[in-house]
Amino acid sequence: MMFLTRLPCARWARMHTEQMAPSLRYFPLVGLLIGVISAAAYKAALECRFSAPVGVLAAMGAAIVLTGAFHEDAFADWCDGFGAYTPEKRLEIMRDSRLGTFGVVGLFFLLAFKAALLASMPRSWVPWTLIVAPCVARWAVLATFYRSPYRAVPNSTVALFAGKVSGKELWIGTLLAATTGLIYGCVPIAGLLLGVGSASRLLAAYFVRQLGGLSGDCLGVIVALSELLTMIALSHVRPFILHFL
């Protein structure tokens, strides 16, 4: 909770580095909480007689406030570093707190794509999509590190997770994510987890080739793109699958 959100925790709560890898199993649960609050913001906007697009913006705004734009910042940093030619230069740009043109444009398209997907859905689908997408996206981090050979770049938070995720963590996290998505049916949610998990590992392999390892920004990008991929799947792929079942 302290790592993924800006929600206040009990004063006695402390984040210990040795507990970070086992805590990955609960990442989908934190995503579920973010999704529930976002869906509540969407429903509240509709109850106040605002249009569906305004409700979508309210939901996205709620998620950004809850997370402190944690993953959006990482995505923008990655977009800025994309234009560099060496791993060292890419990492240097990504660690720079200033936002460049690539970062601004990339972040705009990420948020616009999400907003357009949600606004184009039937209203009854939006709350469930808002709930399931953050949950599956946080699960993608767990899938990325299970038995993965990926190493962390120097001085990165990824060192807390790399090579430390067991089958127990994976199964607990998968159970949480799958249970959340059962509203869409067993076949669609199984395919969704398989697709998002595979995409997250491919993305991690790409980062390793580009940067020489994984950084905290890489995890943020994995979450951001996994959430977008989940929204695409729930809005377009699921109806196609159900048509043939």
From TrEMBL:
Pathway assigned to this chain's UniProt record: Cofactor biosynthesis; adenosylcobalamin biosynthesis; adenosylcobalamin from cob(II)yrinate a,c-diamide: step 7/7
EC number, UniProt record: 2.7.8.26
Membrane topology value: Multi-pass membrane protein
Localisation: Cell membrane
First-level EC class: transferase
GO MF term set: adenosylcobinamide-GDP ribazoletransferase activity; cobalamin 5'-phosphate synthase activity
InterPro entries: CobS (IPR003805)
Chain ranges passing through the membrane: 24-44, 50-70, 99-119, 125-146, 170-194, 214-234
Required cofactor names: Mg(2+)
Gene Ontology biological-process entries: cobalamin biosynthetic process
Main location: membrane
Keywords attached to this entry: Cell membrane, Cobalamin biosynthesis, Magnesium, Membrane, Transferase, Transmembrane, Transmembrane helix
GO CC terms in record: plasma membrane
Full protein name: Adenosylcobinamide-GDP ribazoletransferase
Lineage of producing organism: Bacteria, Bacillati, Armatimonadota, Chthonomonadia, Chthonomonadales
